[in-house]
Amino acid sequence: MKGFIIVNTLDELDLESRHLVHKAEETLPYAYAPYSKFRVGVAVLLDNGVIVTGSNQENAAYPAGMCAERVALFTIASQYPGVSIKKLVVVAKGENNQNLSPATCCGSCRQVMLEFEQRQDKVFEVIMQTQDHQWVKADSAESLLPFSFSKKSMGQSQGSNYAGL
């Protein structure tokens, strides 16, 4: 698969990525997941060196909750406007798991990540664990969402200010 690096163990990832995995894992206790019992944590490295984290926040009134990726990304948009994202790492743990569980970004999060790439006019790496417990490093969010929907799809230029983006 073009645009992806797959490794068998966490130790095979670069030092920066391993550090982000650990930062994402540190957010798992802050997830609010009483319904799914599946805690998700994210760490996002910005170009200025700041690491922003997020965890999933569920709600009994589905779909009022928020995925960890979007929690972190929307935090970046409001607290670090104009600062580009370099890398995003997502991890998860089920209720009775001692080790990390496989978790890949949902379609909604992939769409939001894609728009962040378009907004910053620069791709960023995405790292997550596959169902085979391998680690995948995607070279861009766009690679995770082929045939994506974007401003171009709506007849908008990438530089337009549609919906405040």
Structural class by SSE content: alpha+beta
- Please report the first level of CATH classification, the CATH class: Alpha Beta
CATH architecture: 3-Layer(aba) Sandwich
Q: Whole-Å distance between the termini?
A: 31 Å
Strand content: 15-25%
What's the multimeric state? single chain
CATH superfamily: Cytidine Deaminase, domain 2
Order of helices and strands: EHEEHEHEE
Uncertain runs: 160-165
Q: How many beta strands in the DSSP annotation?
A: 6
CATH fold node name: Cytidine Deaminase, domain 2
Tally of distinct domains: 1
Average pLDDT score: 91
Biggest sheet overview: 6 strands, mixed
Helix content: 10-25%
Helix and strand layout, with pairings?
Elements: E1 4-7, H1 15-26, E2 38-46, E3 51-55, H2 68-79, E4 85-94, H3 107-120, E5 125-129, E6 135-138
Parallel strand pairs: 4-5
Antiparallel strand pairs: 1-6, 2-3, 2-4, 5-6
Structure write-up:
The longest helix has 14 residues, at about 105-120. This protein has helices spanning about 15-25, 70-80, 105-120, and strands at about 5, 40-45, 50-55, 85-95, 125-130, 135-140. With about 160 residues, the chain is of the alpha+beta class. The protein is built from 3 helices and 6 strands; from the N terminus they run βαββαβαββ. The model is unreliable at about 160-165 (pLDDT under 50). Strands 1-6-5-4-2-3 form a 6-stranded mixed sheet. It has one domain (about 5-160): Cytidine Deaminase, domain 2, CATH 3.40.140.
